[in-house]
Design goal:
- It is a single chain.
- By secondary structure, the protein is an alpha/beta fold.
- The chain is 29% helix and 23% strand.
- It has ten helices and twelve strands.
- Strands 6-7-8-3-9-10-12-11 form an eight-stranded mixed sheet, sandwiched between helices. A four-stranded antiparallel sheet has the order 2-1-4-5.
- Strand 1 and strand 2 form a beta hairpin.
- Helix 3 crosses helix 4, helix 3 runs parallel beside helix 5 and helix 4 packs across helix 5.
- It is globular and about 70 Å long.
- The model has no long low-confidence stretch (mean pLDDT 91).
Length: 336
């Protein structure tokens, strides 16, 4: 099966390089003698790069493998196969203390600010825990660092003795961001960091993430299903479907010239704030459900729902993921 590759524009140094990444979750039967009867192919052969200082947006329907990709890059899920390079270090080959040291440079902001903070710990304990775990700071030095981090994310530094239940959702997400910043990371996976927040708060968190990126030179993998948000924050956007990236391009190019039928369908559902344009626009309605990642379709995985599917789309091999021009990568027989 062909893997996929695409590199960034506008940034020169590659920070993250993913090669033929696969994450399969085994399916077993039996209570005492369990036997392996199949796999959930959550991520199935990805290859892409993230340049230092850029934001790569990763979008797609629920269950397509976005969050699994982010966690596999950080080695929170160990890949079934493939390689993940941070600069020139193969993370998949690291274990124990060596991996722990590398994790200082990679952090994650989780989707649900209500579930990702320990309700029994104070804000000072939550934000300061990484500093103690990695032996960075203790005592007064740790307290000062925690207060500084709270200031950076727009919270009162004297909130250190409060508990998560005393804060709103937006404030809790700021606490999660402060915790992610504690070790001065280079790379942060933002796993749908605003989807659980009120719409009025979402823009504040997006603006905060952009300000922090400028201030600290951060690199983001921004996972989301809201394409309008992804367009705002990302330099490039990758569209994922059933464990595969089907299209990847500069954000302006992708939104103005989507090549893959799946991307076109997703973008047709994004509201346009001009009533005249919105009234004339035609929605693309996809028929049927997303196939099971346990047994994905032959050929192009999207052919079962694609309104433009041809006979070649239903046959092996699947369409090659390649450059259609100007760094616009797509896996579709209609384009090549």
């Amino acid at each position: 099966m062909d893997t996929q590759r695409a590199s960034g524009n506008g940034h020169t140094q590659t920070l993250i390089r993913v090669e033929d990444l696969r994450v399969y979750f085994p399916i077993t039967k039996g209570i005492i003698f369990q036997r392996h009867v199949g796999d959930v192919k959550a991520v199935d052969g990805l290859a892409f790069e993230i340049k230092r200082g850029e934001t790569l947006g990763l979008v797609g329907e629920s269950g397509c493998g976005k969050s699994t990709t982010g966690r596999a890059i950080l080695q929170l899920y160990r890949p079934t196969s493939g390689r993940v390079y941070f600069e020139d270090v193969d993370l998949t080959a690291l274990k124990g203390e060596a991996l722990r040291r590398m994790r200082r440079r990679m952090q994650m902001i989780f989707q649900d600010p209500y579930a990702s903070l320990n309700p029994r710990m104070t804000v000072g304990g939550i934000v300061g825990e990484p500093l103690e775990v990695h032996g960075i700071a203790k005592g007064k030095e740790k307290q000062e660092r925690v207060q500084e981090l709270l200031r950076v994310v727009g919270l009162n530094p004297y909130f250190v003795n409060r508990y998560p239940h005393e804060f709103s959702g937006g404030q809790r997400q700021r606490i999660g961001i402060a915790r992610a910043l504690a070790l001065n990371p280079d790379f942060i996976v933002c796993d749908e960091p605003i989807s659980a927040l009120d719409v009025s708060i979402q823009a504040q968190i997006i603006n905060l993430l952009e300000d922090l990126q400028d201030q600290f030179g951060l690199t983001y993998l921004f996972i989301a299903h809201d394409l309008s948000v992804v367009r705002h924050i990302s330099d490039r956007v990758a569209v994922m479907y059933l464990g595969k990236i089907v299209e990847l391009a500069d954000r302006v190019e992708l939104y103005e010239n989507p090549l893959h039928p799946y991307t076109q369908a997703l973008l047709s559902a994004v509201p346009i704030p001009d009533p005249d344009v919105e009234a004339k626009r035609q929605r693309i309605i996809l028929e049927g459900d997303v196939p099971s990642p346990t047994n994905p379709p032959r050929g192009c995985r999207f052919h079962t729902r694609c309104p433009l599917a041809m006979d070649v789309c239903r046959e092996d091999p699947e369409p090659e993921f390649k450059d259609a021009g100007g760094g616009h990568y797509v896996a579709c027989h209609l384009v090549h």
